[in-house]
Structure formats: C-alpha cells, structure tokens
Amino acid sequence: MRGFFSTRGGGVVLDTAQLLDVKNLETFFSTDAGKVKAVRGLSFSVNAGETLGIVGESGSGKSVTSELILRLQDNNAVTYAGEVNFRGENLLEVSEKKMRDIRGKEISMVFQDPMSSLNPVYTIGNQLMEVILLHQKISKLEARKKAIEILRLTGIPDPEKRLKNFPHELSGGLRQRVMIAMALSCEPSLLIADEPTTALDVTIQSQILGLMEDLKQKFDMGIILITHDLAVVAEVCTRVAVMYYGDIVEETDVISLFENPLHPYTRGLLKSIPHIEGDTNKKLHVIEGTVPSLKDSHNGCPFRPRCAFATEQCNVYPDFIKYKDNHKVKCWNYKDVLAAKGDE
Predict the structure, then answer these.
(1) Which pLDDT belongs to residue 77?
(2) How many CB atoms are closer than 10 A to CB 101?
C-alpha cells in the first residue's frame, strides 16, 4: 500500500496494471429536440504510471467523457450505455453511495477553471480539509497537517498561510495548484485533468505540467489529460487518443502520432500548429467545414464531409484498423494520408 508522502529509493518503478477500461461508451442527452448522442461508442484504457492524452476540437466529447467516468452528469438528463470498468468494476452500475466513495479517493479530477470550482466563501484550508476528512478517518488536526503537506508538495510557498486565504486572494497558477492538491489529497489511483493549463501563461503552464508529471511518478498514478493543445500532449503524454464527433478516431503512442498521423482529422490538427521557423507570411492550415450537429443522424464516417481523402467506401464507418501493434485508426484511406505526408 502506498504511503502518503513516501518516496522510493533507486528510482520509480511504474505499475503497468490496467486501471480503467472503457468499452463502447455511449451517452444520450435529453433536449427539447429529443435525445442527442454526445458520445458514440468509444473505447479506451488507462494503465497505472502512464498519461493518456485525449485531444480534439471543442465539442468533440472530451469533457463529457471525463464527467461520465465519475458519473457527474444529471441522471434525469443523461442516459448511457456501455462499460466504464475501474479495477474490474463497472462504475455505471455501482450505487451512488459507492460512487461518492470513489470520487476524490480512487479517482480525482482537476477541472478547467479553478475559480469556478473553488467555493469563493470558504478558505483554501476549509475546502482542502473537507476532502481529506470526507475520505479518511482522521482528526481535524491530522487533516490540517496533511493539507499543509500536500500544498507544500504541490509547490505552494508558505502553505500554512495559504490555508487561511480565500480563492480570490491567489493567482491563477496558485489556484490551479490548490485544485491539484485537492485532487491528490487522498492519493487517487487515477487523475483526470480537464484542460488544467487553460488561461495560464506559458511559464506557469510548464510548471503545472511538470508538477503533474512529478506527482504521477511519486504516486504511481494513471492520468487522463484532456486538452486541445497538441504541444501539451507532446510534452507530457505517453499515449494519445484523438476524438472527433464523440468517438476516438485514432490512438497510438505520442511519438507515432506526430511522426505518422493516419487519420485525416489528426493530420489537419497537426498541420494547423503554427511554427516559428519557415515562411512567416504563409497562412495556417484550416480544416474546412464544421463539425456535424449532434442532432443529425449520420451514416458512415462523420468526418467525410470535411475530408479531402473521402471515397465511396467512407459511407460505411470502419471499426479500428490496426496499422502497427500500438497504432490504430478508424479510416479506410489511412494509406493515402501517409502517402500525402510523404509528398509534403
């Protein structure tokens, strides 16, 4: 069993055991126009000691997927199908009481905007100690000591003083560190980070990403990093899943994704990244068209209307096609995508 702040001599030994296994997850939202499918049968897994990046445009279903893992959606407005297996147990079938025990203790989440996630009328200490006391049978004095230690571990200076601060008294970077401290206060096995560096300057962003990497190794956690920033993915992720229209269309290790993108959508995302070198007057690449409406029913590949590689075969949506052992894609014409990259 992991000690709260224990360190291991001789380097970190990563546990490669599977933590999370999502299978054929589907999500339906009830709206005035009827049921809308926001997540469309996606499957992925996360192992201990690795960081899985989930990337895609806004509206592709990244945040909804993370919220479903923790069952944070309103049951009156959302229905779902499939499996979210955490350590072999389907979280979609467990009781709400057990789910409350899992949230924060076994699986924690760092939300996109710490100012809207932290309660403005309570001090940092009150909010952090509440999480610790909720999941651990310890005294308030012990909870305070743990709160100070976890703030110190996340690089917050003068943690005793910060316990007395209110959220508005901290900078954006410090508030994000507080959110990470709260998420890690009970040593979760899995951390979900939803756009954790949004609205932070590049220096603070780098510090937050480095902090997450250090804490992942210290606690042997698995991390799901949700982002639209491929530079962040390149810096910290082990594997990458590319989402489009509520489904994963490509999955591989981070190096293979950047060297050999197979899906036209992935290729478009990578070509859209601005580069310092080269012709500064050259216009950035644009993925033509728009994401289809979730209200519309679609046969075949949902990226087909925007795709320069589309053929008649794309009227049928493929299952994953294996390119290599660690690289799979949902595209009939991935060889043409590779060939086009070679001609650039």
Answers:
(1) 86
(2) 13
The H-or-E segment that residue 153 falls in is helix 140-153
d(CA 28, CA 34): 10
Q: CA-to-CA distance for 77 and 73, rounded, in angstroms? A: 8
Q: Does residue 6 carry a pLDDT above 60?
A: no
Alpha-carbon dihedral sign for residues 110, 114, 117, 121: positive
Tens-digit pLDDT profile for residues 25-46 = 999 988 887 888 889 999 999 9
Measured CA to CA in angstroms, residue 187 lies from 4, 95, 135, 150, 181 at distances of: 7, 22, 11, 10, 10
211 vs 5, 153, 162, 195, 266, CA distance in Å? 15, 9, 18, 15, 28
Q: What is the mean pLDDT of the chain?
A: 88
Q: Is the pLDDT of residue 14 over 60?
A: no
Give the residue carrying structure tokens 């009328």.
Answer: 121
Of the candidates 212, 209, 192, 231, the residue with the CA atom closest to the CA atom of residue 46: 192
Q: What is the DSSP string of 252-319?
A: EEHHHHHH---SHHHHHHHHTS--SSS-TTSPPP---S-PPPTTS---S-TTGGG-TT--GGGGS---
- Band (pLDDT 50/70/90 cuts) for residue 104 is confident
Strands, E, within 96-169: which ranges?
107-110
Q: State pLDDT tens for residues 149-196.
A: 999 988 899 999 999 999 999 998 899 889 999 998 888 999 999 988
Contact 197/181 with Cβ under 8 angstroms? no
Cα–Cα distance list, 286 to 175, 265, 268, 343 (Å): 34, 11, 7, 19
Q: Look at residue 102 in the predicted model and tell me its pLDDT.
A: 93
Q: CA angle, corner 107, sides to 106 and 113, nearest 5?
A: 145
Q: Is 222 exposed, middle or buried (0-12, 13-18, 19+ CB in 10 A)?
A: buried
